[in-house]
Design a protein that fits this description.
This protein is α+β, with helices and mostly antiparallel strands. The protein contains three helices and 13 strands; from the N terminus they run E-E-E-E-E-E-E-H-E-E-E-H-E-E-H-E. 11% of the residues lie in helices and 24% in strands.
């Protein structure tokens, strides 16, 4: 996820101390989506203890890192076991994240690439992946920009020859030319959690199409809670941002509002897959000190309200109409 981007993106995706308990968001019919950073879990970021947050060395982002209570048996956690699964209905469509378009593969076993892997941990632990599953940093999973999801891949540390098998269930990473984001435990088993990144070879695993197919994954509602957003060290590609007063007379749906621009960019990437069939464009809009994620434009407010009602079931919250 860019990480957290999408999941379409998070983010979307480079992607212990005390924290404050998240407060439940106040909701009402037609109300704005709360100011959130979904990939921050709604808590005050904790101080990383394994590696410094840097932009060029491949270490994790500020506020991310290993959890405060790391299980003692990480080495005993088994690799993912490949099995036939139906592809997610929405997360395998073409999408855009941080200004770049991605076309997900539709078949397994037809991808092999060498490049840099990163990992993501406590900052995104418990948050939804691009297919609606809850991210578990202690499960053998990964985020990839174009591999089918869900699917399975063998990841090999080029320097050591050590390999693991992971289940790809998220989108990302979208920064610094990374080719895959592993869960904390997968990166641990490959021996690079302290470095933040490593050169790896990623190979998609073909699954017997005649094997019994397990039940499809039902996407969980997007969890929306208010959050304190951490200062972000990593530099993301620039996404154009409209400002209040620059555009007039257009109707949009607001999906979220953020105190930090990178939080908005990550959320935009996560929403790319979910809104891919809307025929509308996701964009950033700044007003009153917040960066907002808008979808549109729509012909009029009535059309926007109808679209919001359809999106509510898919997103888990109802966007509201915004006039620029």
């Amino acid at each position: 996820m860019d990480h957290k981007l999408i999941g379409l993106l998070c983010g979307v995706t480079l992607l212990g101390a005390c924290s404050s308990a998240p407060k439940k968001a106040e909701t009402r019919q037609g109300a704005a989506a709360p100011i959130v950073d979904l990939r921050n879990g709604g808590s005050v970021p904790q101080t990383a203890t394994t590696a410094p947050a840097t932009t060029g060395s491949g270490a994790y982002l500020a506020g991310d890192g290993p959890g405060a209570d790391v299980p003692a048996n990480l080495d005993a956690i088994p690799d993912a076991v490949p099995k036939a699964e139906p592809l997610h209905k929405y997360a395998n469509r073409q999408y855009s994240a941080l200004g770049k378009t991605y076309v997900p593969l539709q078949e397994t076993g037809k991808y092999k690439e060498r490049g840099i892997a990163s990992w993501y941990g406590k900052k995104f632990h418990g948050q939804n992946t691009s297919i609606g599953e809850v991210y578990d940093m202690y499960a053998m999973t990964a985020a990839h920009p174009t591999l089918p999801i869900p699917s399975y891949a063998r990841v090999t540390n080029v320097a050591t020859g050590k390999s693991v098998v992971v289940r790809v269930n998220d989108r990302g990473p979208f920064l610094h030319d990374r080719i895959i984001d592993l869960s904390y435990v997968a990166a641990y088993k490959l021996g690079y959690v302290n470095n933040g990144s490593a050169e790896v070879e990623v190979e998609s695993i073909a699954v017997d199409p005649n094997a019994p197919v397990v039940a499809a994954v039902e996407p969980a509602p997007v969890k929306v809670e208010p959050a304190v957003v951490a200062p972000v060290v990593a530099v993301a590609p620039t996404i154009p941002v409209a400002t209040a007063g620059a555009v007039t007379g257009k109707v949009y749906l607001q999906l979220g509002a953020f105190k930090a621009k990178q939080g908005a960019e990550s959320f935009l990437a996560k929403m790319s897959a979910a809104t891919a069939d809307s025929g509308k464009t996701l964009a950033l809009y700044e007003k009153s000190g917040l960066t907002r994620v808008h979808l549109g434009p729509y012909a009029n407010a009535d059309d926007a309200r109808k679209a919001a009602a359809k999106l509510q079931a898919k997103l888990g919250f109802k966007p509201f109409v915004s006039l620029h």
